């Protein structure tokens, strides 16, 4: 594949941003054949940094640029992707940091200017303090606020946000530190399409990214195709990778001048982003970015730890309730009696307004629920057609329109099938909670046709746009889903045991 001449909004997910063929302007990219160390591709801004026109460097051994000794140190073991010994060097009277990595058959060297006396260890001093502060936060929420504050203090971006993804990759600003005169974006939601899949995936490989000047002039890489592989250079891990024109337009519409984005990764999955905006150009050097990378990794780990602890304490709570229920069912295996006619009810297992047990064609309801007829139809027409043993939704009406009749008792449903049967169910209901969801701009306006550019462009306005969300309940949490799975396992084995005994009796 090649990077298309013209990108537009009609297939965002397909834009191959890793082979954009251009770099940002705050440094120079030099690519070499990783075997011969001959320069194979180079940024057209070579002259303004190195004082040598790019055409003069193509085909030369990289030692002509960086000297024999340093060049020798770049010889790599084949396939060692992680290789990244960073070096500082003087070129054309300027001081650079050279950041190498392997990309396919090429060795990519990102050259970025640094101050000669910039002390790489300066930033490390702050790390102990960061560790202490983040370690002391007592909840995931306060941890996010602390992380935003620390980032703002260290790097000085105008706005620092912790952005959290939901199950569908929509996101919300859950913590923010900003300059006083800026309006707050705290709590605002943004649709999944604002950060397409390929961009999210890149953040798992290259955790940190700056856009030093949103209004930069992209620097073409010369030649476009690598003479080594015949393909465009994969810039996934380059510090200088140019930016999708769509995203540039998005930031321009937001009036942003520069950004820093870092991945918040939990259990190998992109949990969210540290998103920083500046309203003019802003460049932070490689060592500062390393500090930021470190900070976000500590933060991600603390976050995972705190969320896991919360999960475990919930787990502890419901495992007590579960044991009580199993005891109530007793040796005789009286399922309905045990779940419904004792001091502890199965609906105590997770926050809900009511529940239903449908066992051997008999329905029993408890708490606030739809009517018996409505629940029976829900089971017959919808739940029993489901292949999965566990089903949950916070927006039943979307998948089962008749639920419109009982939003106030059952906008949300979580159900498990009991035993091997497709006809025995345990169901929990949750009422509607009407929410006002605030978006950063109307997400339905995500694309509009721009006459002057003759193509679709991202939405222009990011003003708060409020949507009333009806037909939704609170979402089901991981630990609640685990609780339902666990009780299903227990009940299913009790039922199986009972069936065995009955068969034995018959024999
Ligand atoms: C990238 N979009 C991004 C990134 C962010 C956002 C953080 C990553 C930026 C980076 O790599 O440096 C979105 N930024 C946000 C959001 C907030 C924020 C939500 O600060 C909220 C406060 N963008 C669109 C649409 C498309 C699109 C409709 O809005 C597609 C048609 C594309 N966004 C898009 C692309 C990238 C991107 C292609 C990758 C840019 C790149 O790496 O070159």
TrEMBL record:
The keyword Kinase applies. Residues 139-297 form the Phytochrome chromophore attachment site domain. GO terms for molecular function: phosphorelay response regulator activity; phosphorelay sensor kinase activity; photoreceptor activity; protein kinase activator activity. Its EC number is 2.7.13.3. It comes from the Bacteria. It catalyses: ATP + protein L-histidine = ADP + protein N-phospho-L-histidine. The keyword Cell inner membrane does not apply. Keywords: Chromophore, Kinase, Phosphoprotein, Photoreceptor protein, Receptor, Sensory transduction, Transferase. GO terms for biological process: detection of visible light; osmosensory signaling via phosphorelay pathway; regulation of DNA-templated transcription. In the N-terminal section; belongs to the phytochrome family. This is histidine kinase. It comes from Christiangramia salexigens. The lineage of its organism: Bacteria, Pseudomonadati, Bacteroidota, Flavobacteriia, Flavobacteriales. The chain holds residues 4 to 510 of 736 of the full protein.
């Amino acid at each position: 594949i090649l990077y298309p001449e013209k990108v537009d909004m009609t297939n965002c997910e397909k834009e191959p941003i890793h082979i954009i063929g251009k770099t940002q302007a705050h440094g120079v990219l030099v690519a070499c054949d990783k075997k011969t160390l001959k320069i194979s591709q180079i940024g057209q801004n070579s002259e303004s940094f190195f004082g040598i026109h790019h055409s003069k460097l193509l085909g030369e051994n990289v030692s002509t640029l960086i000297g024999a000794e340093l060049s020798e140190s770049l010889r790599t073991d084949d396939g060692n992707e992680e290789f990244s010994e960073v070096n500082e060097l003087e070129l054309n009277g300027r001081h650079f940091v050279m950041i190498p990595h392997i990309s396919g058959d090429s060795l990519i060297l990102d050259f970025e200017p640094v101050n000669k006396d910039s002390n790489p260890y300066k930033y490390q001093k702050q790390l102990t303090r960061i560790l202490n502060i983040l370690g002391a936060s007592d909840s995931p929420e306060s941890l996010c606020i602390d992380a935003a504050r620390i980032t703002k203090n260290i790097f000085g971006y105008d706005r620092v946000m912790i952005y959290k993804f939901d199950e569908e990759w929509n996101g919300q600003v859950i913590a923010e530190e900003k300059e006083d005169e800026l309006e707050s974006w705290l709590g605002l939601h943004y649709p999944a399409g604002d950060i397409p899949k390929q961009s999210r995936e890149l953040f798992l490989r290259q955790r940190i990214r700056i856009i030093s000047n949103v209004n930069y002039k992209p620097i073409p890489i010369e030649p476009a195709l690598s003479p080594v592989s015949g393909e465009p250079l994969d810039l996934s891990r380059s510090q200088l990778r140019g930016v999708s024109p769509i995203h540039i337009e998005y930031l321009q519409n937001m009036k942003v001048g520069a950004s820093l984005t870092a991945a918040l990764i939990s259990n190998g999955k992109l949990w969210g982003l540290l998103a920083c905006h500046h309203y003019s150009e802003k460049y932070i050097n490689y060592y500062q970015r390393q500090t930021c990378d470190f900070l976000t990794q500590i933060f991600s780990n603390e976050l995972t730890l705190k969320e896991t602890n919360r999960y475990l304490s919930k787990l502890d709570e419901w495992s007590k309730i579960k044991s009580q229920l199993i005891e109530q069912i007793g040796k005789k295996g009286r399922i309905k009696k045990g779940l419904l006619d004792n001091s502890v009810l199965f609906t105590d297992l997770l926050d809900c307004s009511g529940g239903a047990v449908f066992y051997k064609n008999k329905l029993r309801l408890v708490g606030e629920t739809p009517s018996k007829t409505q629940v029976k139809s829900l089971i017959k027409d919808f739940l029993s057609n489901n292949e999965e043993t566990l089903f949950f939704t916070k927006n039943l009406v979307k998948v089962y329109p008749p639920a419109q009749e009982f939003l106030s008792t059952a906008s949300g449903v979580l159900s498990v099938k009991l035993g091997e049967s497709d006809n025995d169910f345990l169901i929990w209901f949750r009422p509607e909670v009407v929410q006002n969801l605030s978006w950063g701009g109307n997400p339905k306006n995500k694309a509009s046709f721009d006459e002057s550019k003759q193509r679709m462009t991202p939405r222009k306005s990011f003003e708060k746009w409020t949507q009333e969300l009806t037909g939704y309940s609170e979402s089901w949490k991981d630990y609640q889903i685990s609780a339902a799975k666990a009780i299903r396992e227990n009940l299913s084995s009790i039922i199986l045991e009972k069936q065995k005994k009955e068969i034995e009796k018959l024999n």
